[in-house]
Amino acid sequence: IKFSPLQPTLSTAMRLLVLSLFCLSLAAPRSAQPPPPPTAQCVADAYPPPPDTLVPTARVNLDEPPATRWRQVVAPRAAGMRALLGQFRQFLFNLTGSDSLMNIVDKEMVPLSQTLPEPFRSELDGVSALSNLSLGEVTLFNVFYELFPLCTSILAEDSSGRLFHARNMDFGLFLGWNVTNSSWIIADYLRPLLVNVEFYRGGRLVFLSSHYAGYIGVLTGLRPHQFSLSVNSRVSAKTQSLAGVVEWLLGIRDQYWLGVATRAVLENATDYGQAKQRLANWKLIAPVYFILGGAKHLEGCVITRDRAAGAADIWERAAAGNHSWYLLQTNYDHWKSPNPIDNRRGPGNACMAKKGQDEAASFSGLFNVLSSIPVLNKLTVYTALMRVDDATLVAYRRQCPDPCAPW
Ligand SMILES: *[C@@H]1O[C@H](CO)[C@@H](O)[C@H](O)[C@H]1NC(C)=O
Ligand SMILES: *[C@@H]1O[C@H](CO)[C@@H](O)[C@H](O)[C@H]1NC(C)=O
Ligand SMILES: *[C@@H]1O[C@H](CO)[C@@H](O)[C@H](O)[C@H]1NC(C)=O
Ligand SMILES: *[C@@H]1O[C@H](CO)[C@@H](O)[C@H](O)[C@H]1NC(C)=O
Ligand SMILES: *[C@@H]1O[C@H](CO)[C@@H](O)[C@H](O)[C@H]1NC(C)=O
Ligand SMILES: *[C@@H]1O[C@H](CO)[C@@H](O)[C@H](O)[C@H]1NC(C)=O
């Protein structure tokens, strides 16, 4: 990948904007408080979910020009993308009493998009044209998903050696809580944007992934017969992500945006070993957890990343104490305790252990674990189930009716 030269430089206003958005994202949840969580569950009857929650599938042909290849994904969901951006605009207006922040977005995000490598730069142009959102808004959209997903990911292997990878995507604190509807506002706007994408090249399926329409990176995906990947954000190291964005704006471009790195790995890494090597060693804008599943017995690991090149830690399935048949990762370093107000790890592990390998290492078992409060919570937007050996990726839109955990 070639990164573009330092020009155009980005203004002070842009740096201010990123700082403000970052601070707002931390402050917003406190403004309207959701109710306290009920006790932890381990359900057994959530699978199969209602058919109308199945996320639809669309196709991206990598042989088409970047500007038009997202048409099938974006065009049918353009109104939903505009509704989300409208909500965001309104939120900023309510908070600051003016349109000035959003006007900065419209102007200043454009030069940021120009600093991205191809094909991303042209794809963002294309998404903008297809959605009738400004290039600034589309770029903001993409930067945002990089920084704020909270999630639970699980790798598992059944007794016959079949590998599974499942995840909940939790996203929503940012726009605040809807008291009337007892839901996170942004999660309500994201669910209609969900779409699974099949990426083709030369007439062949290259990889599969689950997306919010308009986001061109990958947060959940699989390369048939080779590897599966999910990304969880690393909360404890959050301040580092801001440093990465600021460095990028200042012109230090020898690092990967998350979505750029994951797209490149799914598109071009040919096997598990190569994917692991790249995900562990590429320099990144933000710290993150990569949950990487393989195709063979005991293949699979959680890569805990700092920004600098080289992995902070690679946690192999084989090293997972008395349960090498699975690994479960949320948003905290596996060698430390999770934040007590956000402990999805303890209940998730307890549920896996209670079900045991025979029940849990399957689509139905994993879906049930991921449907148990607080692993399932008000932030959960989708649950994805992956099987690398038969190239299966299915995703379901999730709701969590009251009483439910807020996160
Ligand atoms: C903005 O404020 C209006 C009026 O108080 C309110 O109805 C609306 O829900 C708010 N929107 C957001 C996104 O905060
Ligand atoms: C696209 O955006 C332009 C400018 O905001 C507007 O005039 C036009 O009606 C929009 N078209 C659609 C199909 O939304
Ligand atoms: C909150 O939920 C109510 C009831 O579903 C809905 O009418 C309203 O538009 C929602 N508010 C926002 C800001 O989305
Ligand atoms: C209100 O919440 C329900 C269930 O959580 C959801 O299906 C719906 O989209 C929400 N409505 C609005 C307007 O956000
Ligand atoms: C994957 O490799 C091809 C061929 O070298 C290149 O054109 C493409 O941009 C790469 N994809 C990504 C996402 O880096
Ligand atoms: C695994 O070890 C933990 C403590 O190290 C224990 O609590 C748990 O019961 C063990 N699980 C099994 C299935 O043996």
Automatic annotation (TrEMBL):
It is found in: Lysosome; Secreted. Pathway: Lipid metabolism; sphingolipid metabolism; Sphingolipid metabolism. It comes from the Eukaryota. Residues 55-108 form the Acid ceramidase N-terminal domain. GO terms for molecular function: fatty acid amide hydrolase activity; N-acylsphingosine amidohydrolase activity. It is an enzyme of class 3 (hydrolase). Keywords: Disulfide bond, Glycoprotein, Hydrolase, Lipid metabolism, Lysosome, Secreted, Signal, Sphingolipid metabolism, Zymogen. Transmembrane segments: none annotated. Residues 151-341 form the Choloylglycine hydrolase/NAAA C-terminal domain. The active site is at 151 (nucleophile). Its main location: other. One of its GO terms (biological process) is fatty acid metabolic process. Residues 1-32 form the signal peptide. Its EC number is 3.5.1.23. PANTHER family: ACID AMIDASE (PTHR28583), ACID CERAMIDASE (PTHR28583:SF1). This is Acid ceramidase. It comes from Macrostomum lignano.
